[in-house]
Structure formats: structure tokens, C-alpha cells
């Protein structure tokens, strides 16, 4: 009996020798974590106090340190954009954009992006294809209906009018959530093309959400991918294109993603995010708001006659607009100019009914700029052309103003005004009949003619 007691005591002491240091180590780890959290909190609180003293903060405004992600997310969840400051209390100029609106002090270019974003778009090298295979801006669909030119799969999708006054336009809505939250939900549809997706193609669209935390996502894949569409509008097969809360890019066949992990950038709340994909064979590049997020030399995106679009929304709504699929892409503008005496492009875009250039135009404009810089003897006439929507009294001066806007962009970037002339022809010189949305898109173009 005595031996059993001694044996148990020995085992207990032996076990304690191992357990106590472990417990002490755990306690020490917890203390270190607490000290670290308290230090971070003091830094964040100090930054907020410094901001209150150093800058003119609006009464009842929420001030967050740039390191305090929870503060930022909670403020935006309440529908309020916080003032974000660094450790010294100075406002962070390049923090993520407002979740609900553009500040009154920041001018916009009509696309929802601010003038301070121009530097981002300056190096944009995406050139859209010129032969339009599919285009939908949803303007021809009755409000409340699902577009007849799309093939419905599942979900809650309808066309709504977004905005007010002259800036209002029709868009496709997924989910019925408002800025206060709601049912949200998923939605998916199919785009049927007039022919198999060509070897060289471009895909463009714009997105916006009402979710202050920007949790909406979209995935696009072709009919040639691994599986048929899931009617739950979820789990897209590989490969596919994706834009979600944290990144944008290309999902590869093996399940690996090629994209840009950029933190909580997500689809914009209250502002449009522009997405573009250009593929030349297996070489594909993807862009989000002017920034290249994927550059994949071997991306085996299956060519087929159908593309499937999956969208997921959490308690809010996702808006989709200006869905454009075209054949072509980057080409030698100088070769076209010498061979034909001119080149035309549908890739220079303007706000609806105005001569305000949209930032997505920078890819083509930069190509024209390079041409003029490389060939100092070239002089061009810039022509504006519209479709037949609207009257001649509106379209003719509009086309002239748009040609002048292109000239101004080029002269602002160093081209001598003496090398450029402008003209506008409205809808008087269509290249195809104005009988489909794709053809009208083809007629809304800019042309550059070689001058003697």
C-alpha cells in the first residue's frame, strides 16, 4: 500500500514538473499579447487624440487610426465614412475610398471615381476589342423586368433606375437589399454570344454595391468549363474570373488564383468599379479600376458560345452595368493608319449624353499618344461619331464636343495642337445599321484620319 502511494506521489511530481512550466509559458504569452494589444490601443487612441487637436473634425464624426480595422468597418457598417489618420494624427490621403459617397470637396469625372484617381488610370494599357459581340447597358429593358437578352438561371434579378436627374440610368440589380440591409441573395444568368468566343477577345463591365462592408462578389466562366451552371448561383467551376471582397483575378484550372490580394477593397459602395479582361490566346490580363491585377501568360479560358455570370450578395444589392464583350484588342494603330489612312475605335468612352471622358478611355488614348510621340511627322483629324439615338440637333454638337475632348486630352499630354484637327458627324456616317445594341455600340466611335 505504502509503495503504491509513493509511486503515485512520484508520478504527480513528475507530471507537475512538465505542466507548471507550460502553464507559466502560457501565462507569459497571454501577458505579452495583452501588452501588445494595449500598446496598439494606446497608439491608436493617441493618433485619434492628435487628430482632434490637429485637424478640423466635423462634430460627431468618427475618427479611426489607419491600423484600427474594426473601427473603420464598424463606422462604415453604420453608414458613416470615418476620418482615417496615421500614428501622428494626420489624415491618410490614400486610405480606401468613401463607402457611401464622394466628399463634396472632391470633383468627379462622371464615373464615380474622383479626380485624384487620374494618376492611377494614367498607365492604363487595356485596349478593348473593336468588333462588339455582345453589349448591354439595360436601357431598353422595362424597370422591374429581367432583361430578355440574357438567359435567366436563378435568383432575384431585375432592372432598376439608379441615380436621379440627368445622371440616372438603368442597371441590373441582384438582390433587393437597400443601404439599410435586406434579403440580399444570389443571382445568375447566361450570356449567349453570336459565335464562339474568339482567340483574341476583351470583356468589360461595371459593378457597384449597397453593402457598406463590400462583401458582394461576381464570378464569370464559359460553357466550356468543368461543369454546367449550378442553379444555386454558387460554386463556379474552374477556370473563372472573380471579383470579391478581398481581391480580383483569374481562377486557374487547378484551383489556384492569380490576382491581387489588396485587403478590404472589394466592390465599391456607391461608386462604380470598372473591370476589364483582355486575352490574346492563352495570354490574359485583368484590370480593376485602372490597376492591372492579373498578368497570366498561360490562362486556359475555354472558348465557347456561352458565358455564365454568378453573383453573390449578403443582405444588400449588387448592381451591374455596361456589359461588353468584343473581338480584338491591342493592335498596331500606326499600321492601321498607314494601311487604311485612318483607324477607328469604340474604346474611347464618355459619360452618357456628355463629352466627359471616362477613365477607361486611357488605354486607347495612351496608344494614340505613343503613336504621335513615335512619329513626329504625323498629323491627325479626330472625328466624333454617334449612333442614331436622339436628334441630330443633339448628336451633331455632341460628336464635335467629344472630338474636342480627345484633342484636349492629347494636347494636355504634350501633343502640339497644330498636329490635330477635329470634326463631328453625329449619326450621319454609321458603319453598320443602328438596329441592335451591339451595332449602336459599333457606331459610337472615334476615328483618327491621317492628314497630309
Q: Could you walk me through the main structural features you see in this protein, from its secondary elements to its overall organization?
A:
The protein is an alpha+beta fold and 452 residues long. The protein is 25% helix and 28% strand. The strands form four sheets. Strands 3, 5, 6, 8, 13, 14, 15 and 17 form an eight-stranded antiparallel β-sheet that branches. The longest helix is centred in the first third of the chain and has 53 residues, at 2-54. It has three domains: 2-85; 125-327, Jelly Rolls; 333-450, 60s Ribosomal Protein L30, Chain: A (2-Layer Sandwich).
Total domains, how many?
Answer: 3
**Structural class by sheet pairing and helices:** alpha+beta
CATH superfamily of the largest domain: Exo-inulinase, domain 1
Number of strands: 21
End-to-end Cα distance, whole Å, is 116 Å
As a percent range, the share of strand residues is: 25-35%
**Mean pLDDT across every amino acid position:** 78
Number of helices, counting only DSSP H or I runs of 4 residues or more? 7
Q: Which architecture of the largest domain does the CATH hierarchy give at level 2?
A: Sandwich
Q: Major β-sheet, in short?
A: 8 strands, antiparallel
Low-confidence stretches: 12-28, 34-43, 51-60, 93-116
Global shape: globular
CATH topology of the largest domain: Jelly Rolls
Question: What is the string of helix and strand elements?
Answer: HEHEHEEEEEEEEEEEEEEEHEHEHEHE
Q: Any idea of the CATH class of the largest domain?
A: Mainly Beta
User: How much helix is in the residues?
Assistant: 25-40%
Radius of gyration: 28 Å
Amino acid at each position: 500500500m505504502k509503495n503504491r502511494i509513493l509511486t503515485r506521489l512520484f508520478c504527480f511530481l513528475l507530471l507537475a514538473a512538465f505542466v507548471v512550466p507550460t502553464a507559466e509559458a502560457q501565462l507569459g504569452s497571454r501577458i505579452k499579447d495583452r501588452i501588445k494589444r494595449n500598446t496598439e490601443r494606446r497608439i491608436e487612441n493617441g493618433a485619434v487624440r492628435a487628430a482632434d487637436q490637429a485637424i478640423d473634425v466635423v462634430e460627431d464624426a468618427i475618427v479611426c487610426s489607419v491600423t484600427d480595422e474594426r473601427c473603420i468597418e464598424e463606422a462604415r457598417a453604420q453608414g458613416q465614412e470615418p476620418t482615417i489618420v496615421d500614428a501622428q494624427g494626420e489624415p491618410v490621403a490614400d486610405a480606401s475610398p468613401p463607402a457611401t459617397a464622394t466628399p463634396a470637396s472632391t470633383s468627379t469625372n462622371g464615373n464615380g471615381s474622383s479626380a485624384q484617381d487620374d494618376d492611377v488610370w494614367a498607365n492604363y494599357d487595356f485596349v478593348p476589342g473593336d468588333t462588339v459581340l455582345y453589349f448591354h447597358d439595360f436601357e431598353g429593358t422595362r424597370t422591374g423586368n429581367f432583361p430578355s437578352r440574357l438567359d435567366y438561371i436563378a435568383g432575384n434579378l431585375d432592372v432598376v433606375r439608379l441615380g436621379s436627374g440627368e445622371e440616372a440610368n438603368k442597371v441590373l440589380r441582384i438582390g433587393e437589399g437597400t443601404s439599410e440591409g435586406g434579403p440580399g441573395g444570389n443571382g445568375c444568368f447566361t450570356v449567349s454570344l453570336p459565335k464562339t468566343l474568339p482567340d483574341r477577345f476583351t470583356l468589360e463591365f461595371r459593378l457597384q454595391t449597397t453593402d457598406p462592408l463590400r462583401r458582394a462578389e461576381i464570378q464569370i466562366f464559359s460553357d466550356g468549363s468543368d461543369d454546367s451552371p449550378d442553379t444555386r448561383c454558387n460554386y463556379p467551376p474552374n477556370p473563372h474570373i472573380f471579383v470579391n471582397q478581398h481581391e480580383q483575378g483569374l481562377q486557374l484550372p487547378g484551383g489556384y488564383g492569380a490576382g491581387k490580394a489588396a485587403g478590404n477593397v472589394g466592390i465599391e459602395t456607391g461608386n462604380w468599379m470598372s473591370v476589364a479582361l483582355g486575352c490574346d490566346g492563352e495570354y490574359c490580363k485583368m484590370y480593376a479600376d485602372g490597376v492591372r491585377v492579373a498578368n497570366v501568360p498561360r490562362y486556359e479560358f475555354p472558348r465557347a458560345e456561352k458565358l455564365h455570370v454568378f453573383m453573390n450578395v449578403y443582405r444588400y444589392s449588387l448592381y451591374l452595368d455596361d456589359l461588353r464583350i468584343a473581338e480584338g484588342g491591342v493592335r498596331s494603330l500606326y499600321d492601321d493608319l498607314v494601311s487604311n489612312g485612318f483607324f477607328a475605335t469604340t474604346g474611347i468612352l464618355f459619360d452618357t449624353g456628355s463629352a466627359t471622358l471616362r477613365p477607361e478611355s486611357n488605354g486607347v488614348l495612351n496608344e494614340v499618344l505613343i503613336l504621335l510621340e513615335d512619329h513626329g511627322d504625323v498629323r491627325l483629324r479626330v472625328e466624333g461619331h454617334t449612333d442614331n439615338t436622339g436628334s441630330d440637333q443633339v448628336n451633331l454638337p455632341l460628336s464635335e464636343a467629344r472630338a474636342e475632348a480627345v484633342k484636349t486630352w492629347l494636347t494636355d499630354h504634350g501633343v502640339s495642337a497644330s498636329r490635330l484637327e477635329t470634326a463631328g458627324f453625329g449619326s450621319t456616317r454609321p458603319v453598320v445599321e443602328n438596329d441592335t445594341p451591339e451595332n449602336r455600340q459599333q457606331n459610337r466611335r472615334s476615328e483618327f484620319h491621317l492628314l497630309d
